[in-house]
Write a structure and sequence with these properties.
- By secondary structure, this protein is an alpha+beta fold.
- The chain folds into two domains: 170 residues, D-amino Acid Aminotransferase, Chain A, domain 1; 167 residues, Alpha-Beta Barrel (D-amino Acid Aminotransferase, Chain A, domain 2).
- Helix content is 25%, strand content 28%.
- Strands 1, 2, 3, 4, 5, 6, 7, 8 and 18 form a nine-stranded mixed beta sheet that branches. Strands 9, 10, 11, 12, 13, 14, 15, 16 and 17 form a nine-stranded mixed beta sheet that branches.
- The longest helix has 16 residues.
- It starts with a strand and ends with a strand.
- The mean pLDDT is 96.
- The structure holds 2-OXO-4-methylpentanoic acid (COI).
- The site of 2-OXO-4-methylpentanoic acid has 5 residues, from loops.
- This is branched-chain-amino-acid transaminase.
């Protein structure tokens, strides 16, 4: 029995509207009919679990989240399989990560069961919003956005005694429009994303707010994403504005920056590292300097680069533009990049055996 009380939306969006949205949802533009919510207070802990109609929140203008950005979130997807059933991917990893983020942002821990139940309760009401993929290249899904905000009305700087947790859902197509075309990356010149002891590893809104000026710089240079280097030396690659980075070497290694204070422990990142041996690659998590990448791409030792994340899935990188150099990986997606993409999507959409038991039926 679920703890989540259900208050059904008596005015759901019409079926025709929903079906049209699912045909071409874009990313993060449309939302389903319901949202899950759990309230936290210092005295009562987590309580009042509910699923209710999706709609605006009424918050006090003095709520802590507006002033001190005490906020964290997650990104997950729901996939429809050929038999109509709906599944999500490694949700226990998102539950663990939201609690790591909560610890860093001084927000309360939420139990794995409340986290997973909130998703199940929402998806069971909004099942019809999960798109059906039309082909193997189609990556449409229902994107879930669990988030936690500090809602106490209080302007002193301390951790909030009142917190609200929500899950909203949005039918989603590819994060980058224009098909599976290699994207261009701008190497941030003026901004860093995270430093030692900071919040870089946490999935908190502040990290993304801090990336926007650099992301705008990238867009002004005609690039789709920004790449940050380490704050201490500006020497090693960290991560992209909203996704992790991976490189493939000619001698069969899959390189990615090692976890630390500044790298998000991406579920897609982890899964690709786990899948690497079956694709004939040796995973290697370590520091990677921009120079190593630049020289490797020039002398043929680094043959492919891609971005990965829940929203980005596996997106090939064609070019990296720095102030004094360009790294060129060509106009076409790399072979291993596309193999990773297919292997992962086949598991997620139930087209390949889920040997690792990553999929959870909702
Ligand atoms: C995700 O991949 O789920 C994220 O939260 C990243 C964001 C760029 C959408």
């Amino acid at each position: 029995m679920t703890k989540f009380a259900v208050l059904k939306n008596v005015q759901p969006q019409p079926e025709l509207v929903r079906e049209n949205i699912k045909k071409d949802p874009g990313f993060g533009l449309y939302f389903t009919d319901h949202m899950a919510h759990v309230r936290y207070t210092l005295d009562d802990g987590w309580h009042a679990h509910e699923v209710k109609p999706y709609g605006p929140l009424v918050l006090d203008p003095a709520a802590a989240v507006f002033h001190y950005a005490q906020e964290i979130f997650e990104g997950m997807k729901v996939y429809r399989h050929a038999d109509g059933s709906v599944w999500t991917f490694r949700p226990e990893r998102n539950a663990a990560r939201i609690n790591k983020s909560a610890e860093r942002l001084a927000l309360p821990q939420i139990s794995e069961s409340d986290f997973i139940e909130s998703i199940k309760a929402l998806v069971s009401l909004d099942q019809q919003w999960v798109p059906t993929p039309e082909s193997e290249a189609d990556e449409s899904s229902l994107y879930l956005r669990p988030f936690m905000i500090a809602t106490e009305r209080f302007l002193g700087v301390r951790s909030s005694h009142e917190v609200d947790y929500y899950v909203i859902a949005s039918p989603a197509g590819p994060y980058f429009s224009g098909g599976i075309k290699p994207v261009s990356i701008w190497l941030s010149q003026n901004f860093n994303r995270a430093g030692a002891g900071g919040t870089g590893f946490a999935k908190c809104g502040g990290n993304y707010a801090g990336s926007l000026a650099a992301q705008n710089e990238a867009a002004a240079q005609g690039c789709q994403q920004v790449l940050f280097t380490d704050a201490a030396e500006n020497k090693y690659v960290d991560e992209l504005g909203g996704m992790n980075l991976m490189l493939v070497t000619k001698d069969g290694r899959l390189l990615t920056p090692e976890l630390g204070d500044s790298i998000l422990d991406g579920v897609t990142r982890r899964s690709l590292l786990d899948l690497a041996p079956q694709l004939g690659l040796q995973p290697e998590e370590r520091k990677i300097s921009v120079d190593e990448w630049r020289e490797g791409a020039a002398n043929g030792n680094i043959v492919e680069a891609f971005a990965c994340g829940t929203a980005a899935v596996v997106t090939p990188i064609g070019r990296v533009i720095g102030s004094e150099f360009t790294i060129d990986h060509g106009e076409e997606p790399g072979e291993k990049t596309m193999e990773f993409r297919k292997t992962l999507l086949d598991i997620q959409y139930g087209r390949a055996e889920d040997k690792n038991n990553w999929m959870v039926r909702l």
